[in-house]
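Board notes, transcribed. Complex of a protein with adenosine-5'-triphosphate.
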Amino acid sequence: MRRISRKYDRFGANRTSGRWARRAGARTVNRMPLIPEKNTVLRARGLGKRYRRRWALADCTLDIPAGRVVGLVGPNGAGKSTLLGLAAGLLTPTSGTVEVCGGRPGADRAQLARVGFVAQNTPTYARLSVADHLRLGAKLSPGWDARLARERIRRLGLRPDQQAGSLSGGQRAQLALTIAIAKRPELLILDEPVAALDPLARRDFLQDLSEATAEQELSVVHSSHLVSDVERVCDHLIVLVASRVRLAGDVRELLATHRLLTTPRLDPGTLPASLQVVSAHHTDRQTTMLVRSDSEVYDPAWTAGPVGLEDLVLAYMGQSVPVAEAHR
Ligand SMILES: Nc1ncnc2c1ncn2[C@@H]1O[C@H](COP(=O)(O)OP(=O)(O)OP(=O)(O)O)[C@@H](O)[C@H]1O
């Protein structure tokens, strides 16, 4: 499923002479791949949401391929919940369009059945028991998987007769997640689902998610502040900063097209246009930059190394104005 260009595996290790050398025949990776419509689980075009004069999400154009586990990361207030709320049909766009599983979010019963959503505060009905929640789920969801729900509740050690109001925050989150998964949706949207779970429960839940996507043709979009969780399960990444999508794509491709460059001190503005500088730090003698390049462009005087997901995410999150734009 994943495409990875072999040339990027060798980036920086295979040096040629000559300034700004570009390897002949280098294949270019599209920044905005055109994904056939039937393979797209979420398609946004110029999507925006404004509250009074403030845009919570602006000019969001995205294609999320089906069958992926997508990590949505960004600082507080970046617009993650807004994007997820628009995708779940809980919010109405101020501008642009969003399509989920080929339809308008929340448009009708069939469309509602395609999407499972767990909000940040994992709402449950305090006076209803765990078993009542499962019965409600079965009634409202045409594709309800009763066995999966029962089995998961048993594995979690939740008592079916216990009222949701007497569950801990983490247990309520697990109940809400169980209902969302047992609905057997095509797309599962999770707004910081694991924030309330203990580390072991978090690991197990993320494991469940990975298995469910493999077995059920499920796509997952989940927001998280924990890059380590994203790294563990996600194969697609979206970084939102200040209401805008700063980075989106296949995790392996993103890692393959970004490099940490160490150079004698230089002004990033003098770099070739094919190198996008994401972040730059200078000492008296040297410059360290996180750069994006679709082709192997480097100078013999530079050292190029791979970038980890955390460094990549933090570099984009740290941008108020993209460094490359500021320099050019
Ligand atoms: N109902 C609302 N009314 C007014 N402003 C809102 C409303 N909901 C969100 N906002 C604003 O929109 C922006 C984006 O909020 P959103 O909740 O989408 O961010 P987030 O990335 O999910 O943040 P966090 O990581 O803290 O949950 C914020 O500035 C927030 O104050």
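Residues 6-30+253-327 form one domain. Residues 1-33, 321-328 have pLDDT under 50 and may be disordered.
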